[in-house]
Each structure stands twice: as C-alpha cells, then as structure tokens.
Design goal:
Number of domains: 3
Strand content: 5-15%
Keywords: Cell membrane, Membrane, Transmembrane, Transmembrane helix, Transport
Strand order of the largest sheet: 2-3-1-4-5
Oligomer: single chain
CATH architecture of the largest domain: Up-down Bundle
Helix content: 55-70%
Number of helices: 19
Order of helices and strands: HHHHHHHHHHHHHHHHEHEEHHEE
Radius of gyration: 26 Å
Distance between the termini: 41 Å
GO cellular component, one term: plasma membrane
CATH topology of the largest domain: Growth Hormone, Chain: A
GO molecular function, one term: transmembrane transporter activity
CATH superfamily of the largest domain: MFS general substrate transporter like domains
Pfam families: MFS_3 (PF05977)
Subcellular location: Cell membrane
C-alpha cells in the first residue's frame, strides 16, 4: 500500500516528570542542565566572537558545524564502545574532553591570541567530547529506568535542555556584553566540572553479558547490520538527517539575523535564542499531551511546517518581537521532532545494540546539521540572508511530505531486554573462534499452515539476520513436502552464542507462533554443525562434522 500507513494515536507511557523520582537519574539530569547552561553560554560567546573577528558569513555558520561534525565522524565508534564497555565511564571521559576544550578557550581568550580557525578548532574539540557522551547518556536511560519511563525520560532531557535554552543564551549575551568571552568560557568550565563530580558520585547497575566484549570492528559491523535491517530505525534516521539539513538554518544564521537584519548586538542575539528555547520548553512540557492526541508521524509533519514558518518569518521581519514569536514556533517544532525520532530509535532497539543504533542516528543527523550549516552559510554569503532562509523554509515543507515515503511507525511497548541463553553441550571441544557454525532447524508443516508459516518465516529471517545470522535460507523437502529446514551460519562459535544471547522476549514470541504451526508432539529439531575444508591435501579427520541435536 502506498502512502503513510494508518496509525493509532500513541498513548503516553509515563507521566512527564516520573523519571525524576529515580535517585540516580535525577542528580545526573539536574547536573546535565547546569552543564547545558554552561554549554549555551559558551556557544553564544563563540558565535558572537566569530561574528566580531570574522567578516565571512560561512565562518559564522561553521560554528554550528564545528560541534556537530565530530559527532558525524565519531558517533558510530562511540556507540560501539557504549555497548561493550561502561557507559558511565564513557560519559565521564567525554565530559573531560569538553571541559578541556573550555579550559583552553579560557586560556587563549585571557591571552588574547585567538583567531577564527583557532576558535573553530576548540569548538570542534568540544564536539568530539559530545560525540562520546550523547550515545552513552541516552543509552544509559534504559539502564537506569524502566522501559515504560524511557519516552518520558527522553522528553525530560529535551525539556531540560530547552528550559535552559530559554534563559541560557540571554544570560550568555549579558555575560559576553558585560564581561567579555573570557568570563563566559570560565563559567562554562565550572559547570562541566560540576557534572563530572556528579557522574563520579552516581553509579547504576547494568546487566552484564556472560560473553566477552566484541572486537570494535565486529561491534560496528553488527550495529550497522541491525540498523540496515530495521525499517523503523532507517526511517527515523533518514527523517532526522533531512530535518537537520534543512532546519539548522534557524540556529546557524541567527547571529547574522541579529547583527544584520535586526541591527542588534549580543543581547539581542541572546533574546532571540531565548525565544527559541521558550517555545521548545513549552512543547516539551506538552509533549505527552500531544502524543495522546496525535500520532508521532503527524507531530513530525506539523513540526516541519512550524520550522518552515519560522524560517520564512525570519526572512522578512525587521521586528525583534515578531522574530521572537517565530523562533518560539520553530523551537517547538525542533524539540517535538528530535524527541520523537530519538524515542523511536530507542524503542526499536534491543539493549544489546541500542548504543550503536543511537550513535548511527546521531552521526547521520549531525552530518545533516553540519552540511546544512555550511550550505545555508554559503547561500547567505553568495546571495543574501533572506534568500537562505526562504530556501530552507521551502526545503522544510518538502521534508514535511517525506512521511508518505518514510513513515514513523507507532511506538511499540515490547520487551527488548535479552533473555539469556544456556550454552548447548557439544561432543567436541570448541574454542571461541572455532567455526564456521551451521545451524539447522527442522519443521513439520501441514499444507494448511504453509502460507502462515511462510509469513512468520519472513519475520524470522529479519530477526535472525539482525542478531547476526549469515546466509539465512529456508528449504522444502521435495520428497516430503511437509518437511521444512531453516539454515543459517555464524562465522565462529562465539558469534553463535552472541546471536542467541541477543534474542529478546519479543523475538521468542515468534518461536511460539512457529511452534503452533508445527505438526507433531516433539518440537522442531535443532542441529548444529561445524564446517571443515575437504581439499585433496587435507587429512580425513579435518573433514569431520559434529552435531548437536535439541
């Protein structure tokens, strides 16, 4: 069926502020808001500093790109690390890098030796730290809280940031105008140190895997493979990249709007940013109510239209008041879109791979933001500021229509935690790297159940391939048509164990549906074998196979 699939309105799974009852989530969330205040003050200082020391519109717009490009380049590696090592330690290390960049900005500002490229370099270093903290923090939400509280927690993270955004830029403008960039950078450094202290105090339990950590390249490959097989995650990622590409013009060009179109200084720029943050704050608080009334797909479409209206208003208005109202509308659309897409990726991802899927999502959305910052800055410099805003507004209207091709599916409330797996007993001694392993599951399916069986097997192929199965296929016996064999391979014995440890309760429900179609008192039989080469020069015992039957 073409067009957007029919969706039911998604009910709110948890009250917006329920996650704050958790004694671990609450202090980290509060400290994160304080550090976000420091981040926004620092970004105002960097943006305005760049606008005063450089005459290039592209250099001003590249301030946004400098913090997002590292996420595009490093996020996938960060996600693989978050799924295989301590997410808490990764958060701590990332914020250490951010604090280091702020300290270095404070030093160069105090010495007065900065230039545009140096400012971009330190801004980029902060982006490197953010590339490692974001996947680890968002993936940790599911470790700290119950699954039903995850949408509310993601909303709270966004609400908190945008609540700070409503005052942070204005405060940053006052600090920069009154005391200069040096003070702004010093204040930001102190807020980062406070968050580091809080992370050091707070610890949370993470269900550990009985298997050793995956090699980094294997972890990245498995994460990319799972993402490629999930239509829900691919749709969310594609929509986020397009939205970031088109909507970032609002923030990337805002210093130029304040300076050139409205004739203001850093305080006006801070007021405009506060308008954007205020709209985002109110939208975040109302997010649960909006989700009860509208599907996420409809909310995403309306949010794109709201951001388009913001761009077009900024292109024509000479009034600060009108610009603030337009930015409030754009901020509301911004937070609703990003919150919905983030939650869609989280709820579609099992715990074993959530860090990697989130990192791929952040990488491509940040790539869209970085490319958009450069694109709209180039258009503004080559043509005019109003032309860049008009074109981005038109592009956002096109993005609003992509729901017909890439719909955001209804959020599913299913258990994505791994169930665990008891290692089967085998007749030969195996090492973790022994393989390849061939698994065969034999079914007896009466003719009346064949169509239903094939439908379930299509889902089975997606599930098994997503957790690591290679060369999956289904065979039907020509002499006994009721006899069907599912076959797949894994490169090593350890990969086979990982595959089974990754299966969730939702995946196991598929086994029960297949069992209901299977004929006979005994369940489907599983056979495991190890492949061995049979070349002419090989010894006879190298061609042996061994079996495990269940």
């Amino acid at each position: 069926m073409s067009g957007v699939a029919r969706e039911e309105v998604n009910p709110a799974s948890s009250a917006t502020f329920a996650p704050l009852e958790n004694s671990t989530f609450r202090p980290i969330w509060i400290a994160t808001q304080v550090s976000s205040l420091g981040w926004l003050i620092q970004m105002v200082a960097i943006s305005w500093l760049m606008a005063t020391i450089s005459t290039s519109d592209v250099m001003v717009a590249l301030v946004q790109a400098s913090t997002t490009l590292p996420t595009f380049l490093l996020s996938i590696v960060a996600g693989a690390l978050a799924d295989n090592y301590s997410r808490r330690n990764l958060m701590f290390a990332g914020w250490c890098v951010i604090a280091l960049s702020s300290m270095m900005l404070t030093v160069v500002a105090g010495l007065g030796i900065f230039n545009p490229w140096m400012v971009l370099a330190f801004s980029c270093l902060a982006g490197v730290g953010a590339a490692f903290t974001d996947p680890a923090w968002h993936a940790s939400v599911g470790d700290i809280l119950r699954k039903r509280d995850v949408p509310a927690a993601v909303t709270l993270i966004s609400v908190g940031y945008n609540a700070v955004r409503s005052i942070g830029p204005a405060l940053g403008g006052v600090v920069v105008a009154s005391f200069g960039p040096l003070t702004a950078f010093a204040v930001a450094t102190l807020t980062y140190l406070m968050l580091l202290w809080t992370i050091g105090r707070c610890k949370w339990h993470v269900r550990s895997s009985p298997l050793p950590s995956e090699p980094l390249t294997t972890a990245i490959h498995d994460g990319a493979r799972f993402t490629a097989l999930s239509s829900e995650i691919k749709a969310a990622i594609a929509r986020s990249a397009l939205f970031g590409l088109t909507s970032i013009s609002i923030l990337a060009l805002l210093p130029l709007v304040a300076r050139d179109q409205l004739g203001g200084g850093p305080i006006v720029y801070g007021i405009l940013m506060a308008g954007f943050g205020t709209g985002a704050l109110f939208a975040g608080i109302c997010n649960n109510t909006l989700r009860r009334r509208l599907s996420q797909e409809r909310l995403t479409t309306l949010s794109c239209i709201a951001c388009a209206a913001c761009c077009l208003s900024l292109a024509f208005t000479p009034s600060v008041a009108v610009a603030v109202i337009a930015l409030a509308l754009g901020g509301a659309g911004w937070v609703v879109t990003w919150t919905g897409l983030d939650v869609s990726v989280q709820l579609a991802s099992p715990r074993w791979v959530v860090g990697r899927t989130l990192s791929i999502y952040y990488a491509l959305s940040s790539g869209g933001i970085a490319a958009g910052s450069w694109l709209w800055g180039t258009v503004a410099e080559s043509n005019s500021l109003s032309s860049a805003l008009e074109l981005s507004g038109g592009a956002l209207l096109l993005v609003a229509g992509t729901g017909f091709l890439l719909p955001i599916r209804q959020w599913k409330d299913s258990d994505q935690a791994p169930l665990g797996f008891e290692t089967p007993q085998v007749a030969l001694e195996l090492k973790p790297r022994s393989g390849p392993i061939v698994a065969k599951i034999e079914y007896s399916i009466p003719e009346a159940n064949v169509e239903a069986f094939l439908e379930q097997m299509r889902e089975r192929r997606r599930v098994q391939s997503g957790v690591g199965a290679r060369h999956w296929n289904l065979q039907r016996d020509l002499q006994q048509p009721s006899h069907w064999t599912e076959t797949f391979r894994t490169p090593t014995w350890m990969d086979y164990l990982r595959l089974n440890h990754r299966l969730t309760a939702a995946d196991k429900e598929l086994d029960q549906r297949l069992l209901a179609l299977h004929l006979g008192e005994l369940p489907p039989r599983t056979t495991l074998a190890i492949e061995r080469p049979t070349g002419a020069g090989r010894k006879r015992d190298q061609s042996m196979r061994f079996f495990f039957r269940r």
